[in-house]
Every structure is written in structure tokens, then in C-alpha cells.
Amino acid sequence: MLSIALAEVCQAGEVAPASQKEGTGAIDFEKHVREVAQRTAAEARAKKDAERAAKAKASADKIAASGGTALKVFKYRKDGAVMFADSAPYKTQYEVVVYNSCYACSITSTVNWYNTRLHLTEFSDTIGLAAKQFGVDAGFIRAIIHAESAFNPLARSRKGATGLMQLMPGTAKDMGVIDSTNPEQNIKGGVRYLAGLLQTFSGNEALAAAAYNAGAGAVTKYSGVPPYEETQTYVKRVKILSERYKNQKQLATK
After folding, report:
1. Would you call 96 helix, strand, or coil by DSSP?
2. Is 148 a catalytic residue?
3. Domains of the chain by residue range
4. 43, 51, 148, 229: the active-site residue
5. What single-letter DSSP state applies at residue 167?
6. pLDDT of 207-240, one tens digit each?
7. Does domain 124-253 have CATH number 1.10.530.10?
8. pLDDT of residue 108
């Protein structure tokens, strides 16, 4: 045992105490081994903490650059109750829940909406069927999905909006959506809702987009796009995206 401990210490680059070199104190040597082990473990924990912090910062920077924000919450059970925390609970099973903000709503976004990458092929069949069924332009649908979730079917907001078209629970229920994380259900329900807004506002896509963001009541109240900075920013970006998606559709048919 002593030889093994000595080897471990030597590998760690530590020098044995003078008392051990002289063969006068095994107890001192064992204490030295424990101290080395404790320091090594502490250094390893510090390294892991630094790596986690670096990853978290990189993730936050990526989200900020993309124009959105996210909140990571740890969900776990304690004494039979569901608990939430902003850090991982100790020695307890947990689920990480990431809440995303509306992708195109951040007024501080650095995204160039005129040349950001378009999502031209994702969910094509589902979007095409919903567009035909409810009479909504497919390019406009893609613009709304892009603005709401950046085509992330698992996106969730802190207010409870979920999925590609960020349906609130009440809206999802009204539109017959059972699982908002299911792309087909979410798109069909979202486009059905969007079609209703277009009908309400005489086919005006800008007003429909404003209503999708701020609610139909706000658009009616102000007889136009509400004077909310977020909503006005959202409407402008949806228009840019919609025109780009529609242009790509026209190019594809030529």
C-alpha cells in the first residue's frame, strides 16, 4: 500500500516530506497523500466549473448574436412537489428546460434580416398543405415561423408559448392542437389561427403579424400596428422575411 501511495504522489509531481524520506513517519506520508488528493480534486472541480462557465457564456453569446435570449431552468422533484431552480440541484435527478424568447422580437438584435439564412426546405409538405387548406401564403407562414422560433419545434417561451409558431396554451386548444411540440399539429393550428387574423384584418399581412404578436385587440384599439416598440420591430422583420421567402418561391417556379 505504501509503495502504491508513493507512486501516486510521484506521478502527481509532489515530493514526499522529509520525515518519509528518512523512513520515520508513515502517518505523515499518508497525510501528505490525502492533501495531494484533495488539492487534485479541487483543481479538477475548478477546471470543470471554468469549462461549464465558458460553455454557458458561448451559448449566451450565440443566442444574443442570433437575436434571441434564453433562460435555462432546472426542473426537479422534492418531497413530492415539482421544483424549479436556476442551478442544477445537488445529487438529484433533474430536467433542463430552456425558455426562448421570440426570435425576431429583440429590439437589440444584431441579425441582418436582409441576408440571414432562410429555412427553405424544413417542413415543406406540412407548410404547403396548411397554406392550401387555409388560404395563407406559404412565404408568409415561413416568415412567421422564422420570426417566432427560428424553426425550432421545441422552442418554449417563459409566457408558455410553445413550438414552431409559438402557440399559447389557450390558442392551441382553440385550434385543436393537442401537442404543440409536434410540428404538423403546431403548423396546422398556427396557420389556422393566422388565417383568422388575416380574415379579421382584410388580408393585411402587416396587421395580421401585429395581431399575432400583440393580440387582435391591440390592433383594433389602435386601428393599426400598436405603438409598442417590440411589435413594430417584429412587424418590420416579418415583412422583410416574408418578401425574401416569397421571392425565393417565385425564383423556384421560373
Report:
1. strand
2. yes
3. 1-66, 124-253
4. 148
5. B
6. 999 999 999 999 999 999 999 999 999 999 999 9
7. yes
8. 78
